[in-house]
Design goal:
elongated, mainly alpha
Length: 103
């Protein structure tokens, strides 16, 4: 997830067409592989108590990142609502007849 989030922030798949999704997924897989390999070294070197503290820190960071992302999403939705104006449709009842306009 971190890799795909970083790829989104860096806009690595922008203007790539259909390849953009594969590029972002590739970043996610790359970061996942790095995290997987580094987790073995961290688990071997660091004590259990420090790993638990690190997990709480990572949970806190995850909550912060989620909050920021959700806030940005809500702001983007608000700006879309302001720019979109509802279309005024001219609905006519069957009884109304429009007079022809001569030019």
């Amino acid at each position: 997830m971190v890799g795909m989030y970083v790829a989104g922030l860096l806009e690595v798949g922008k203007n790539q067409g259909l390849a953009g999704g594969a590029i972002v997924l590739g970043w996610g897989v790359l970061f996942a592989a790095i995290a997987f390999v580094s987790s073995f070294f961290i688990a071997h070197i660091v004590t259990h108590k420090k790993i638990v503290r690190l997990n709480w820190l990572l949970l806190f960071l995850l909550i912060i990142v989620y909050a920021i992302t959700h806030y940005r999403y809500l702001e983007r939705q608000k700006s879309k609502e302001k720019t979109e104006q509802p279309l005024k449709s001219k609905t006519k009842t069957p009884n109304q007849v429009e007079e022809p306009k001569a030019s």
